[in-house]
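Supplementary Note 3. Input sequence used for the single-chain structure prediction.
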Amino acid sequence: MASSNGLFPSTLFKFDNLERPVQLHLQNVYATLGIGMLSAAVGAYVHLFTEILQAGLLTTIAAICLLIWLASTRHAKENLNMRMAIFTGFTFCSGVSLGPLLDLAITIEPSIIATALLGTAVVFISFSLAALYNNQRTYLYMGGFLMSALSWLLILSIGNLFFASRLLFDINLYAGLFLFCAFVLYDTQLIVEKRRHGDDDYIWHSVDLFLDFINIFRRLIIILSRKENEKKKRN
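The predicted structure, written as discrete structure tokens, is reproduced below.
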């Protein structure tokens, strides 16, 4: 995966406002993200349809450890294959960890998964393009607000473990959906600016976008499952 040549044909990234090195970098980022998505899909499949591995505390711990390992491994040509393997392992474990939520959605209505996946893809692509075509770096100024909001959502989640409030859960759910949509804008422009300043670690940059995608998908699954469940109860 030579970043100098790119992983996708250059015709896929024709943004006149972006320099050629940035375009090549984005090709590598989105190609790596695609590999991560496929790996996550395999992980989810393993949980849903095999007895090889099931989601649990160990898969969550494994995903966290692999992410820490990836972050602590230097981005260099000699480490490329190892870092890609670590990244693939992280996304695989993340996919396995989605298993229980997917099980619930299938129990309620199997089509929820396809609907949530399509909705996530539409949101992700639309917001990514909006960020890439924006020449003013507007979304970078949201960084402070987004980090603060993410911290508050984390505190809210921890607090709700004790209160078990439906209201707090809904606030976390819908605010989190809005927040991670905004993170797609922010992270996309941040990747562009990092590359302009010499940071070409496309594997780590793809981690940010992968987490955005997974968090949007997870929340859409929950929202659609709840609505479908309430619909069935009314009928």
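Residues 1-13 have pLDDT under 50 and may be disordered. The chain has eight helices and no strands.
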